[in-house]
Write a structure and sequence with these properties.
Blueprint (H helix, E strand, L loop, with lengths): L1 H14 L10 E5 L2 E2 L6 H16 L7 E4 L1 H9 L8 H16 L2 E2 L5 E2 L1 E6 L11 E4 L3 H11 L2 H19 L4 H14 L10 H19 L7 H15 L3 H9 L9 E6 L10 E6 L11 E6 L3 H6 L5 E2 L3 H4 L1 H18 L3 E8 L2 E9 L4 H13 L5 H7 L6 H4 L2 E2 L7 E4 L1 E4 L2 E7 L2 H9 L4 E5 L7 H6 L2 E4 L7 H9 L3 E3 L4 E4 L4 E4 L2 E3 L4 E5 L4 E4 L4 E2 L5 H13 L3 E5 L3 H9 L5 E5 L7 H12 L3 H26 L3 E5 L13 H11 L3 H11 L11 H6 L1 H20 L5 E6 L5 H22 L6 E6 L2 H5 L1 H7 L2 E4 L1 H9 L10 H6 L16 H15 L4 E4 L7 H9 L4 E4 L4 H24 L1
Parallel strand pairs: 4-5, 17-18, 18-19, 19-20, 27-28, 27-34, 28-29, 29-30, 30-31, 31-32, 32-33, 33-34
Antiparallel strand pairs: 1-2, 1-3, 3-8, 6-7, 6-8, 9-10, 9-12, 10-11, 12-13, 14-26, 15-25, 16-20, 17-24, 21-22, 22-23, 24-25
Bound molecules: adenosine-5'-diphosphate (ADP) and magnesium ion (2 copies).
């Protein structure tokens, strides 16, 4: 509210305060003339701008006018009162409409009726109902009856007005009217509304008036302008209604002035069997097929189609009803697409054989359809390649990369969490990672349900169909790992109570055990009861074409975050140009390796640690050989060990005992080490390069494995480009220390093997200090990779694993505009990135810069990365196509902006 008020006062003062003449608030359209056009959506709303524009074509649009969105702002800022002078402007424009329509408002001899329709810049379905048939009263209804020779139609229109006006404008609950209608139908043995005769409808009108008077406290207004004024006000009022506010919140719609009101003369699809109403898409919005797609109803008004009172007929069959209307509709379809160069979703009404256009807008479509339509429109020469690339929303590609739930399936949604990793998952509930592995081994399909996951759960997560957590945000462990694996995940579903001991999950008042099937939709966050059927995603031809076009235009490279040869292969198939982050810790969780890892951690001397590490070396080498082979000459950035050591140790007594036994230690010794490694703030603790500095032998083992693997590949004729990356460094000295050990180890290995390989030495930038001193860091580092998860965490001081406890509140109260762990905070964290790039390249002008945080797969963040001149972004394998497309969007938009600047 505060923000809005400030903005408005800014505008007022610009206009010179109160004394200035009121702005033009009303824009007329009719008879092939219009004061607005398609580019005025901010001021006239989407519906109003396009009604004006269609009038200009000219297409047959019933005349009317649009009251601006700025007037809605005035209305709300002025304590919800219609601005003075508005109704005068409305009356003046009604006179123009009357002239254009050749009828007159409130005149029983030749009555004009109008609709009052809402319409903001973005379409907000369900925000506000339209009021039709305004201008009808006791005298006009008889005039209409005489004029049309159709008394039934006149009374049907009248009862619709009393109902809509009472409900939408005066807040009388619709069911009071419905109740009377049912009673009359019942008394007269009518099954459908259409079965009622004139007398029946007259009875309905009488009863509706009583309902109106009873609930409103006054008679239904007979004066047409009173009706109109109230209807206009109701539309404005609805802008700040709960429904509308919620809708904008959910759809991230901000910064709009308000809704426009479109007052438009009525046309009637319910005038008899030569009349109809319908909605259509110029192409199929679900498949993208270039085939007219629509439905219509004979002898009906608009709301009947939506309400599903009668089943509409597909437009393809319109020819059987009226050849003329059908061919007219096809002609209009072509006109619309040629003019708007995009799929249109439009509404029409046919009154006694004459077709009228009531609305058109760019049609919402699935990702599949978006891709196909964009590619086909290029072939049809409607749009060019760049436009086609821009037509596909990068984020929507998710839909094309994972199997999805059958849209036709029945869904029983139990609760909703964060849509953490897209895809459809169906399985039975498992409570621990071990349980998941065991049961999957036995052939079951499993959903792993946990409060939150931890690195040790990786095996269980890997085999599960999907992961559901009750705490944790979009970058919690579960979410990040699931996205990396391409496993569907719903995180932070707070309504879920998990009793792992009793092996029960409680959602609302329902309780589920381990044999119960649930379904997760990782794209929507929905948790559903039972097993909902799925359909496989296909990488169709047009998808490939769009990606090829995207690659032509982007300059930013796209790499992947991948820890295994399988990740590497998937990512390459999706077009990754290297690995930007290979996390080595995940390699240690397999049962045999974790044992050696623990042995290393529990060793009390450097010698003991080295002995344990020597056992891990062959595993590491083998992992790297696998990845290098898959990446065939593309760069691979390997991050040395990052998490704190305690994450590798068992925390329950049974496992600790077993560990003690196998290492010949006492339980107390194991416990003491666990206690010693315990930290109050492990995220800020002994981890990252801090481990390498305390225990250089860990770094040395990893570097040896990397160089040996590279040499082995080289000998097999495979080109390798390893990039050794130090995590978490914040000072130049740390980098120097680690570099010294890295170089010494690499030199030793190369000498032993008698072969040289090239490698780069670089660092993650994830501690703010590293960004601030990037010029010094670049003295030592040959590349930077921005670890924006940690950088965000440390810049804001938000723990990314606990952020869900307050972040939702921050978003709701607009303290933050968006989750900074999902979309890079360009104003703060992004500035650190920008500064580090500039400073770093000041020292080393060929410094390679990339990003490997979760943000690398977020389209908005990718655009920022392009703008600050990063060389690449790196993201999870399944997000690679999204990043490629987002990078193309960034490049195309930037070059277009430069082109415009030049023109000026
Ligand atoms: P929404 O934004 O919810 O689609 P509209 O303003 O488009 O609301 O109106 C809903 C329906 O009312 C339309 O589909 C149309 O059938 C009917 N309608 C709107 N304006 C007119 C009009 N001038 N004449 C006849 N019917 C109309
Ligand atoms: Mg509409
Ligand atoms: Mg980190």
């Amino acid at each position: 509210m505060f923000k809005q008020a400030r903005k408005v006062s800014g505008i007022k003062s610009k206009a010179g305060g109160r004394s200035t003449k009121a702005p033009k608030r009303v824009y007329f359209f009719g008879n092939a003339k219009a004061e607005g056009n398609a580019n005025m959506k901010d001021l006239l709303g989407g519906k109003g701008a396009n009604l004006a524009d269609m009038t200009l074509v000219p297409l047959p649009v019933p005349p009317g006018f649009t009251i601006t969105t700025e007037t809605c702002r005035e209305y709300n800022d002025g304590g919800q009162k219609l601005p003075r002078g508005l109704m005068d402007e409305v009356r003046a424009n009604m006179a123009r409409v009357e002239k254009a329509a050749g009828k007159s408002f409130g005149d029983p001899g030749n009555p004009l009726l109008v609709a009052a329709r809402s319409g903001a810049k973005m379409s907000m379905p369900g925000m506000m109902d339209t009021v039709l048939n305004i201008g009808m009263n006791d005298k006009v209804v008889d005039g209409m009856a005489r004029l049309t020779g159709n008394e039934r139609f006149a009374y049907d229109s009248y009862r619709r007005l009393i109902n809509m006006f009472g409900d939408t404008v005066m807040g009388v609950d619709h069911h009071h009217f419905e109740h009377e209608l049912t009673a009359v139908k019942h008394a007269r043995g009518a099954r459908q509304d259409t079965d009622l005769d004139v007398d029946g409808l007259k009875e309905v009108v009488r009863r509706y008036k009583d309902v109106y008077k009873h609930h409103v406290g006054s008679d239904f207004p007979q004066d047409p302008f009173t009706q109109l004024e109230h209807a206009i006000e109701a539309v404005f009022k609805s802008w700040m209604g709960d429904r509308a506010i919620k809708y904008r919140e959910l759809n991230d719609i901000r910064g709009l002035a308000g809704t426009a009101v479109n007052v438009q003369s009525m046309v009637f699809g319910n005038m008899g069997d030569d009349s109809a109403t319908g909605v259509a898409f110029t192409r199929n919005p679900s498949t993208g097929e270039n085939k007219f797609y629509g439905e219509f109803l004979v002898n009906a008004q608009g709301e009947d189609v939506v309400a599903g009172i009668r089943t509409p007929i597909p437009c393809e069959r319109m020819g059987e009803w009226s050849k003329k209307s059908w061919s007219e509709l096809l002609k209009i379809k072509d006109i619309l697409e040629k003019r708007y160069k995009d799929v249109q979703d439009f509404e029409f009404t046919i009154e006694r054989g004459k077709l009228y256009m009531l609305q058109t807008r760019n049609g919402k479509r699935t990702a599949t359809a978006a891709v196909r339509i964009a590619v086909e429109m290029v072939k049809e020469r409607l749009i060019d390649e760049k436009t086609a690339v821009l037509r596909v929303d990068p984020a929507s590609l998710d839909q094309l990369l994972h199997p999805t739930f059958d849209p036709k399936a029945n869904k029983n949604v139990l609760t909703r969490g964060l849509p953490a990793s897209p895809g459809a998952a169906v399985g039975k509930i498992a409570f621990t990672a071990e349980e998941a592995e065991e049961r999957v081994g036995g052939g079951e399909k499993i959903i792993l349900v946990r409060r939150e996951t931890e690195p040790a759960d990786i095996g269980g997560m890997h085999v599960s169909e999907g992961i559901l957590t009750s705490t944790g945000g979009m970058t919690s462990h579960a979410a990040v790992v699931a996205r990396g694996m391409g496993t569907p995940c719903v995180a932070g579903a707070g309504e879920i109570q998990i009793d792992a001991k009793a092996r029960l999950v409680k959602i609302g008042d329902k309780t589920f055990g381990p044999q119960h099937f649930i379904s997760l939709d990782g794209a929507t966050g929905e948790v559903m009861d039972g097993s909902v059927p799925t359909v496989e995603a296909t990488l169709s031809g047009p998808f490939k074409t769009i990606m090829t076009w995207a690659d032509k235009h982007r300059t930013l490279k796209v790499r992947t975050n991948g820890d295994t040869p399988t990740d590497a292969r998937v990512a390459r198939e999706f077009g990754a140009e290297g690995i930007g982050l290979c996390r080595t810790e995940h390699m240690f969780f397999d049962p045999e390796r974790i044992h050696n890892m623990r042995e290393m951690i529990l060793a009390t001397s450097t010698e003991g640690r080295k002995a344990a590490l020597a056992k891990l070396l062959p595993y590491q080498r083998e992992d790297f050989v696998g990845i290098f082979k898959e990446m065939r000459g593309l760069p691979v950035t390997i991050r040395l060990l990052d998490p704190p050591l305690h994450e590798f140790l068992p925390h329950n007594e049974r496992d600790q005992q077993e560990l003690a036994r196998s290492l010949g230690l006492s339980l107390e010794q194991v416990r003491a080490r666990v206690a010693q490694l315990h930290e109050a703030n492990p995220m800020l603790g002994h981890r990252g390069d801090r481990l390498a500095i305390t225990y250089p032998e860990i770094l040395e083992m990893q570097v040896q494995a990397i160089i040996e693997a590279a040499i082995e590949c080289k000998k097999q004729g495979i080109k390798v480009l390893p990039e050794i990356m130090i995590p978490l460094a914040g000072t130049k000295r740390e980098l120097e220390f680690c570099k010294q050990h890295t170089v010494a180890t690499a030199d030793r290995v190369m000498k032993e093997k008698g072969t040289k390989v090239d490698y780069l030495y670089g660092t993650m930038i994830e501690v703010p200090r590293a960004a601030v001193t990037a010029d010094e860091m670049a003295d030592v580092a040959e590349f930077f990779s921005f670890g924006t998860n940690d950088l965000t965490q440390m810049t804001f001081g938000y723990s990314r694993d606990d952020v869900n406890s307050f972040l939702p509140d921050y978003l709701k109260k607009e303290i933050l505009e968006r989750d900074p762990f999902q979309s890079l905070d360009t104003g703060g964290v992004g500035q650190l990135v920008k500064m580090a790039v500039t400073k770093g390249r000041g020292t080393r002008n060929d410094l390679k810069c990339g990003i490997c945080g979760e943000h690398g797969g977020d389209p908005r963040s990718v655009e920022f990365c392009h703008a600050v001149g990063l060389n690449y972004v790196s993201c999870s394998p399944y997000r690679v196509p999204i990043a490629r497309l987002a990078a193309a969007h960034a490049a195309i938009k930037t070059s277009a902006a430069k082109g415009n600047a030049k023109k000026k």
